[in-house]
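Lecture 7 notes: from sequence to structure.

We start with a single chain of 345 residues. Read the sequence below before looking at the structure.
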Amino acid sequence: MNILEGFTNQEIDERITRLAKSERKITHLVLSHIEEVRRRKIYLDYGLTSTFQYLTKRHGYCESSAYLRIQAAKVLARHPELQQKIESGSVKLTQLAKVQKCAAQISTPPRVDEGATATNATMLDQNRSCEKTALAQLENKSGFETDKILAIQFQQKSVQHQKITPQSDGSVRLEFSVTAEQFDEIRRAQSHVSHSVVGGQLDQLFVHLARWVNKKVDGGKKATDRSEKCTVSKSKMDLNLEQDLTQGLSAKEKLRKQNRRKYLSVRVRRRLLENAGHCCEHIEESSEVRCDSRFQLQVDHVLPIARGGDSGPENLRILCGVHNRLVAQRMNLFRVASGMDFCSS
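Now the structure, written as tokens:
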């Protein structure tokens, strides 16, 4: 029996808000206790050799959770002012663990000659300064943004080499670095083809683009080592690429082909995307929060054609696939059966 079935959506949200706040407060207290266990070596009282064993064997933490909390506890011990940020959720345990990992890599300074002016104390002060500066910038940052901040503050060396490694299962591991500008281009391409590359993984993106280029160049040529199912006509590939780059039509448009409507040119669709900032324009009425998704963007009619709407620019908007389907369901434009969407009559 689902004990939460009788609660409204708003009540569920309010309960989670309270529980999450309590969980973060408890987490802060757990970290303080873990650090005290480490400082006093309480684990020795139970025949254990480390704080890690104490958490995993005595208290049942999984290895990854234990490691994460031990690392975060070390940072919290050095910077007790982080308590409020942990309770508020603006700083996460994973961020603190990453800070500790960076700090540990430079905590032991290299040996210096007698005539050198560098000292262990100076190196330690520099380390703490890097920590403090980094921690001040980590609030409400994503994992990617956190890694970027730490790389800059701790002056991590950039890895420029390209490495291709064969693996036991026949797959190949690729490692290479790109500039910030190149990565932005990759992300944009990832958004453009999100209708075809649904998973959003970079390996799928590169393979998708590689296949398109190969078919674009090869044209109708046949190769003996290709299966018949991999042969796609040039016109079909061009059509698929155009659908990817223009973000495609909405789900309702595809299902209602029998309803004639004004064709939306590529120029119009691009203008709509630019006006929307290449993001979904859906704003949830209850929370007034706008969706910021850039994946599977689709041209949608505010007032559907079936309800008397037209294809004028004032009746068009950009929605992601998830919110396009949500709006359609709320307007009873779809009926769901056997896990599939069908156009209602």
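Residues 223-239, 255-260, 335-345 have pLDDT under 50 and may be disordered. Keep this in mind for problem set 3.
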